[in-house]
Amino acid sequence: MSLQRVAITGGTHGNELTGVYLIKKWLRDPGPVTREGFETLLLHTNPEAIKACRRYIDRDLNRSFSMVDLAHPKSHYEAQRACEINTLLGPKGVDEPRVDFICDLHSTTSNMGLSLVVSNQSKLTWDAVRYLCAKEPALHVYRWQGDEEDAFVDSIAPHGFAIEVGAVPQGVLRSDLFFATERVVMHLLDFFEKVTHGTVIPETDREITVYDHVDLVDYPRDSDGEIDGMVHEKLQDHDYALLHKGDPIFRRLDGSEIVYNREVPLHALFVNEAAYYEKGFAMTLARKITL
Amino acid sequence: MSLQRVAITGGTHGNELTGVYLIKKWLRDPGPVTREGFETLLLHTNPEAIKACRRYIDRDLNRSFSMVDLAHPKSHYEAQRACEINTLLGPKGVDEPRVDFICDLHSTTSNMGLSLVVSNQSKLTWDAVRYLCAKEPALHVYRWQGDEEDAFVDSIAPHGFAIEVGAVPQGVLRSDLFFATERVVMHLLDFFEKVTHGTVIPETDREITVYDHVDLVDYPRDSDGEIDGMVHEKLQDHDYALLHKGDPIFRRLDGSEIVYNREVPLHALFVNEAAYYEKGFAMTLARKITL
């Protein structure tokens, strides 16, 4: 198939340094991302947030790409920046956008290991996912429908996903996760090379395990709506764990336990991610399926 | 000895949630901190930074208590707030300040476990340190002379120190470290009770191991002064490790290694703390001594 341009983006959240520094590294020496048959664009999506080492200046950029927001942008920084990015890499929804695929680099304080967060349904996207799972057996795949409509950076291209790695604190670079993320991106570019060369790619026929988004779970709160508890120490750091009815999931500040009380066992993901305190969720719940 | 008032402070850095939420908990139910023989004050030192979930608004509050800054405060938020706190808990350097002891609650993205950071030289301070080491064998003691003169929150009282726990990301509560910190504070208040009752405290005669501050080590940087490397994956998470000449300590973005090149072996502390990227150090070096 025709694949002319792909974009690797980082710094959508300015305090997620893995992507910020990978993009810096490749901008300085584009050798590893320069491939035959297609062009690779590199972009720091949120330069002001990177400068401030904050997730965002005015609003989460990775929730700013809905069609409505792009058509009627507010006056704040991320709304304006989303429109600029939409011009550079999109525009969203047209037949011939500037890039065919966006891979957006993220990190998380949750112990998500090496993960893909996929909202796009396209065949090319899922062929890439299958290929990466073959190359990186430790890779997890989370099919995400989160707190809002698909307004992620990668939603402005016809194909794409986000890479999420953790656990790494905001504002911190971890060598292990930096090079693991780089490895996944190299595999992805290998995959694009094969696609543009028309090579048969047997890895795309594999079955894969996918964590399919089901729900969001908020922290325990007191009568004023203030957070009144923490992720239970038995669940902390155990992203992808399967929760059964009665398993402890929170501990209130007073030490008492709160248990998982659903009849259906589900897997806990994004457990105790710093940025989700303000969004009001302590973890997401997902069903494990085979695709 | 006479000990009339102690202060437990938290949220000096607004994104270090362990202290923020412990203070909240005790403000709601002061039972555990209400002891016989002395008064316990509780204070959120940096309410605006807590609200914003940032380390500080304008400047690091925990570097704002030098005599010069308190005498000639600048107009920004933390300078003003330092003066307010100095009035509430100090003033620094007088014979009869409002509180006798300040225990300031911190957390770190470094894997420092349960640690005390002690700059004060007073006998009461070190008696308390010895007592806590007896009660909490996992406790580490770091005698700190850092990047500036002693301008910490606890420097405005005649006695005091900071509790530092990690690894925990900024903006995150960890149940294990929350309750471990609470346990140390309870031991400290037990100690004050014994002191005010004139009880003999045999724990204060113990020898203790102390990590004595020697130096700061910056990240590798490129010719523009930009960070060009990360803590080596073999050192990451290994705070208190003893470094020998030739041990890898950094990995540049290009993958090459940088080794420790001092003749004298020293221990690495505060390895890869998020807040120290802007201060320009990747770790501190300390000598292990017995006091």
Question: How many beta-strand runs of chain A?
Answer: 13
**What Rg of chain A do the Cα atoms give?**
19 Å
Helix content of chain A: 10-25%
CATH class of the largest domain in chain A: Alpha Beta
How does this model look, in words?
Two copies of one chain form a homodimer. The model of chain A has no long low-confidence stretch (mean pLDDT 96). With 291 residues, the first copy, chain A, is an alpha/beta fold. In chain A, strand 4 (113-118), helix 5 (123-135) and strand 5 form a beta-alpha-beta unit. The first copy, chain A, has a ten-stranded mixed β-sheet with strand order 2-1-3-6-4-5-7-13-12-9. In chain A, strands 8-10-11 form a three-stranded antiparallel β-sheet, with no helix packed on it. In chain A, helix 1 (17-28) crosses helix 6 (175-197). The first copy, chain A, is 25% helix and 24% strand. Chain A has helices at 17-28, 47-52, 67-71, 77-89, 123-135, 175-197, and strands at residues 5-10, 39-44, 101-107, 113-118, 140-143, 159-166, 209-217, 229-231, 242-243, 248-252, 257-259, 266-269, 283-290. Chain A has six helices and 13 strands. Chain A has two domains: 5-206, Zn peptidases (Aminopeptidase); 214-290, N-terminal domain of TfIIb, CATH 2.20.25. The radius of gyration of chain A is 19 Å and the shape is globular. Chains A and B meet through helix 1 and helix 6 of A and helix 1 and helix 6 of B.
